[in-house]
Amino acid sequence: MTTVDPRPLTGEPVALDLLNTRWIREGEPADLFAGAFGLTRVEGLALWLESAGLAGRFRADAPTLIHLLTAREALARAVADPADESARALVDAVLEHGRIRPTLSAEGPGERAEFDDRTWGPAWTAARNYLELLGGAPERIRKCASEACVLHFHDTSRNGTRRWCSMAACGNRAKASRHYARTRER
Predict the structure, then answer these.
(1) What pLDDT digit, counting tens, does each position of 53-66 carry?
(2) 142 neighbors 86 (Cβ within 8 angstroms)
């Protein structure tokens, strides 16, 4: 099994990292869960769970993948149009499969996620993370400014002006394109 994550952008908050399991590769749509890159669909899920830090908590199996794809679609619609009531209903439907239980431990108050069906765990975790991002700074949930890119990121820059998923990829292409346009005008 390929152990290198083929995605161009990883390490975003779980909700956005799930959205970034679909990207554009050499001008064509790519999907970590589509059974490509030498990975089966479930192996793609296992790779994503590992990358997202969820591998020890949840199993990579077909039911988990189905629920995660449901969450990915719901989140994609909600991020694309936060005013879309049907998208919000889809996210809410995912959230109905889990809850937060307050706990008290030797370290003090805490929380624990509980699920009616553990195969909903990663999907619920991603949807819950989206709520946390909305509760913090929703204006910092962004799609890459490149028209040829479909990736999303959480802008953690000090002044909140990040535009590209990656300066090394999309940002550099945009700068090179502007430079070429300027030199052509002369």
Answers:
(1) 999 999 999 999 99
(2) no
